[in-house]
Amino acid sequence: MQTESKTAIFAAIAGNLAIAATKLVASFFTSSSAMLSEGIHSLVDTGNGGLLLFGMRRSQRPPDANHPFGHGKEIYFWSLVVAILIFALGGGMSVYEGVTHLSHPQVHNSIWNYVVLGLAIIFEGISFYFAFKAFRKEMTGDGVLKTIRASKDPTTFTVLFEDAAAMLGLIVAFFGIFLGHQLNNPYLDGVASIVIGAILAVVAGFLAYESKGLLIGEGVDPNVLDSIRALTRADPAVAGIKKSLTMHFGPSEVLLTLDVRFKKHLKAEEIAAAVTRLEKNIRAQHPEIKHIFIEAKSLYEN
Question: CB-based contacts of 18: which residues, under 8 Å, 6+ apart?
């Protein structure tokens, strides 16, 4: 899964860098506000891809004295930073440029813009393909939004939403430039830039919300927790489970704590053997459970 995510990010960086260069050149020759906004958007997306790779690398550092559970949550932090940058730089600059263009409107030669938009759609389509391919690995039958809510790997849906917003922005830029040229209405280009900014702001808000949930500590999917509880109850030494808690420290690193009640008359060594057996069975079924803490009590205890 991590290999798929890295491939999607590298594809996004390469595509966005090529797109940004062509858009900015076109905006220089045509003075198109929408095209300049799209160029800024692509530059921000390029930097965001670099930040996601940086976060992935940082999250793989081993545990140390200050971080005994590792650095897995770094990827969640940098995903939140990416969402903020999309909002502040991508959305904010696009709205600013649009408002500025509305103050000094002008109709410009559109042939440059059409060529660049065509190339951008090709590059962005390739990037979106790799992003969707990585995201599809996590897809369930519940739909895209529910899959995103259940996903613990923000790199996959962040790149996917960035590319989706980019494709939508290209469509808006095309209509703004085309209608502005056809209707001889220079204000439409500025309006398109503001709409692009609004799209980026909405996407950034959604990504920030999802990253925040992961950063403050999300548990495993309810179906996974049910499976863990069923495995525990199936052990012949277990009488019941009082409490079970989980927390993701990364896309594939989970902390599990179990408050288990063991049957009466079990000796200490039998309970210890049962604990070892439970840990082995849980990890065999759910390899993402890296840390397991079992509080063992007999039925004689409260």
Answer: 119, 123
